[in-house]
Backbone:
């Protein structure tokens, strides 16, 4: 989804997702989601890039550095020892 797919509509926003075959749908956005998206857009500093992607990757940062390892380090064989009930 790109930033241009979010459009103001009165006090709220309209989200226009694109589907296969060029189909577009205009859906009203819940006010809580609109507030969260506005805060995200302002914090990310992407408000002026209307043709850019809404959710972007961190440039120049390896996935492990910004988000941790991709897979859990717990294997199936030792998961029973890690997931013990709390007494």
Residues:
């Amino acid at each position: 989804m790109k930033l241009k797919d979010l459009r103001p509509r009165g006090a709220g926003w309209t989200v226009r997702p694109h589907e296969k075959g060029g189909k577009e749908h205009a859906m009203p956005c819940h006010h809580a989601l609109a507030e969260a998206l506005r805060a995200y857009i302002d914090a990310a500093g992407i408000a002026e890039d209307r043709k850019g992607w809404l959710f972007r990757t961190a440039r120049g940062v390896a996935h492990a550095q910004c988000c941790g390892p991709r897979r859990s380090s717990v294997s199936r064989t030792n998961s029973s020892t890690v997931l013990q009930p709390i007494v």
About this structure: The radius of gyration is 20 Å.
